[in-house]
């Protein structure tokens, strides 16, 4: 067992905090919410986290999501105002130096690829867009839309890149998860896998460190673990078109009493954290004697974390066990997971 | 087919336009069956008697008595919401009934079932949203409010319930000033 120890509560946003994202160095994070602002938080010498900057003029409606690029130089924000803003600090201060337009409706999620050259966005308009970034020395960066993927039949809630490869995953109100990759022949982006099992909206998805597994969180109050099976897998699972297939290998049911809005799979510790509409954060881990093709996950801890829905949980990428949560109650909280209490 | 687009009443048309913002475009026909778009849907709805006002008891005035939220109190908050089409309240149309409200004050949960006047009512999402907004404003934020269609009383029951349960889409709808005007009209107390 273990315990999620409370470190600090951060207030400042007016109203619901929708999302938050760690800088890859783990010493800065950004948060956003219905007050249309982005806050950049850093750790002061006293050890307390404080807002270092408030970015208030980028969007005209709710900011639904924020994400740092893997190089740490750029921050992207997705808004209900249908745009995505790209912020950087080249001038010394955070400035919005590009606005990506094109979605017909609210943008729900934004994510940078591992390489840093690709950005993905998704929207209420049912589409997923992939943008390529052309960096120029001493000039403005250029963003080119290289794919508009219209495979989902409903509102797309979340996009997430694979940890090593240029493979994108998206989750939707249509209850499915889709994977996309580039065709090796013509370099065109297209759907490569369909993951069907949830019975309601899929709110969030996260890969594990290997990228061969994916966890998903849904309105149907379950978490599912999906496993990739490549062609010629030892189990004899058929792979049509010689493409890897994804199978649901585990369903965590009965643990959550309301919609699960987010989850994050820690790349360092393997811990899986979930954010739920019942105000709880739960921590799961794969059992030591678990069969990889029928894995068992154990609930390690439950914390009544907030006074309203928890919207986001995200593990610190550099500091193992440090967790950030954001809630409808307007607060952001920092936690430290301690193994064996 | 004698009815044509010329027969569209201005009220109908206005709501139709506004609701477009809330419904996803491709799904529009599910929520708005085409043949229902051009006429007032339920011309002669059944009208029911209002219930009597709640009687104040001595305990109600005693500040020392803990007074948790109950079904009657929640019903009183929403019974006077106006129907989008008729100059009647949701109580008078039996869209809302106290017996279809469940309150668990301890668990911070309120579940409301509402009954559209007809199974193809295109206003179902708007009515549900009005109930949500009213309670969002009136109740402390600790409550989780679920608003669903009384099972078996609407053709697109599942789609409407899913839409109303999606807090992200509700939040986006509430940022739509046109839609909020309509909802505020429904929520405001009827003219005496």
UniProtKB/TrEMBL annotation, chain A:
Species per Swiss-Prot/TrEMBL record: Anopheles atroparvus
Record's keyword annotation contains Repeat: yes
PROSITE patterns, per database record: WD_REPEATS_1, WD_REPEATS_2, WD_REPEATS_REGION
HAMAP family: ciao1
The protein's role, per its UniProt record: Key component of the cytosolic iron-sulfur protein assembly (CIA) complex, a multiprotein complex that mediates the incorporation of iron-sulfur cluster into extramitochondrial Fe/S proteins. As a CIA complex component, interacts specifically with CIAO2A or CIAO2B and MMS19 to assist different branches of iron-sulfur protein assembly, depending of its interactors. The complex CIAO1:CIAO2B:MMS19 binds to and facilitates the assembly of most cytosolic-nuclear Fe/S proteins. CIAO1:CIAO2A specifically matures ACO1 and stabilizes IREB2. Essential component of the cytosolic iron-sulfur (Fe/S) protein assembly machinery. Required for the maturation of extramitochondrial Fe/S proteins.
Protein name: Probable cytosolic iron-sulfur protein assembly protein Ciao1
Record SUPFAM superfamilies: WD40 repeat-like
SMART domains: WD40
Pfam families associated with the record: WD40
Segments annotated as WD repeats: 10-41, 56-97, 100-133, 149-180, 195-227, 303-341
Automatic annotation (TrEMBL), chain B:
InterPro entries documented for this protein: FSCA_dom_sf (IPR034904), MIP18 (IPR039796), MIP18-like (IPR002744)
Protein name as it appears in the record: MIP18 family-like domain-containing protein
Domain MIP18 family-like positions: 72-148
UniProt cross-references to Pfam families, sorted A to Z: FeS_assembly_P
GO BP terms in the entry: chromosome segregation; protein maturation
Annotated GO CC locations: cytosolic [4Fe-4S] assembly targeting complex
Superkingdom in the source lineage: Eukaryota
Keywords of the record: Chromosome partition
Protein family membership: Belongs to the MIP18 family.
């Amino acid at each position: 067992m273990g315990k999620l120890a409370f470190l600090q509560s951060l207030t400042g946003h007016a109203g619901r905090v929708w999302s938050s994202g760690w800088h890859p160095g783990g010493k800065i994070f950004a948060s956003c919410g219905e007050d249309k602002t982005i806050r950049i938080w850093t750790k002061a010498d006293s050890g307390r986290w404080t807002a270092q900057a408030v970015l208030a003029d980028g969007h005209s409606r709710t900011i639904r999501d924020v994400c740092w690029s893997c190089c740490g130089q750029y921050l992207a924000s997705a808004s209900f105002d249908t745009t995505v803003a790209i912020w950087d600090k080249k001038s010394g201060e955070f400035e919005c130096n590009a606005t990506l337009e094109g979605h017909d409706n609210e943008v729900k999620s934004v994510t940078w690829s591992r390489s840093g050259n690709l950005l993905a966005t998704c929207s209420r308009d049912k589409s997923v867009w992939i943008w390529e970034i052309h960096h120029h020395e001493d000039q403005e960066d250029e963003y080119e839309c290289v794919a508009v993927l219209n495979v989902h039949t409903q509102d797309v809630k979340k996009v997430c890149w694979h940890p090593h490869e240029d493979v994108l995953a998206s989750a939707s109100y249509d209850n499915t998860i889709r994977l996309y990759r580039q065709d090796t022949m013509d370099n065109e982006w297209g759907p490569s896998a369909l993951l069907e099992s949830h019975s309601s909206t899929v709110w969030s998805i996260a890969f594990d460190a290997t990228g061969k597994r994916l966890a998903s969180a849904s309105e149907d109050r379950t978490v599912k673990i999906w496993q990739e099976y490549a062609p010629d897998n030892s189990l004899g699972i058929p792979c049509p078109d010689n493409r890897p297939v994804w199978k649901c290998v585990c369903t965590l049911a009965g643990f959550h009493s309301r919609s699960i809005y987010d989850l994050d799979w820690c790349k360092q510790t393997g811990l899986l954290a979930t954010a739920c509409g019942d105000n709880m954060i739960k921590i799961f881990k794969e059992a030591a004697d678990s069969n990889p093709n029928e894995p068992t996950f154990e609930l390690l801890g439950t914390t009544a974390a907030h006074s309203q829905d928890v919207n986001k949980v995200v593990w610190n990428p550099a500091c193992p066990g440090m967790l950030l949560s954001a809630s409808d109650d307007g607060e952001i909280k920092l936690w430290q997971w301690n193994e064996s209490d | 087919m004698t009815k044509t687009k010329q027969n569209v009443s201005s009220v109908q048309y206005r709501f139709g336009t506004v609701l477009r913002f809330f419904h996803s475009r491709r799904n529009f026909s599910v929520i708005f069956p085409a043949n229902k778009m051009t006429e007032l849907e339920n011309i002669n709805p059944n009208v029911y008697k209002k219930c009597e006002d709640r009687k104040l008891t001595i305990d109600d005035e005693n500040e020392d008595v803990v007074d948790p939220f109950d079904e009657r109190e929640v019903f009183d908050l929403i019974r006077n919401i106006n129907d989008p089409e008729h100059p009647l309240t949701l109580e008078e149309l039996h869209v809302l009934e106290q017996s279809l409200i469940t309150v668990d004050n301890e668990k911070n949960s309120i579940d409301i079932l509402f009954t559209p006047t007809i199974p193809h009512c295109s206003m179902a999402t708007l009515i549900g949203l009005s109930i949500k907004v009213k309670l969002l404003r009136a109740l402390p934020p600790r409550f989780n409010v679920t608003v669903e269609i009384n099972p078996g009383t609407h053709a697109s029951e599942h789609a409407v319930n899913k839409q109303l349960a999606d807090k992200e889409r509700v939040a986006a709808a509430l940022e739509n000033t046109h839609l909020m005007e309509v909802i505020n009209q429904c929520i405001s107390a009827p003219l005496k």
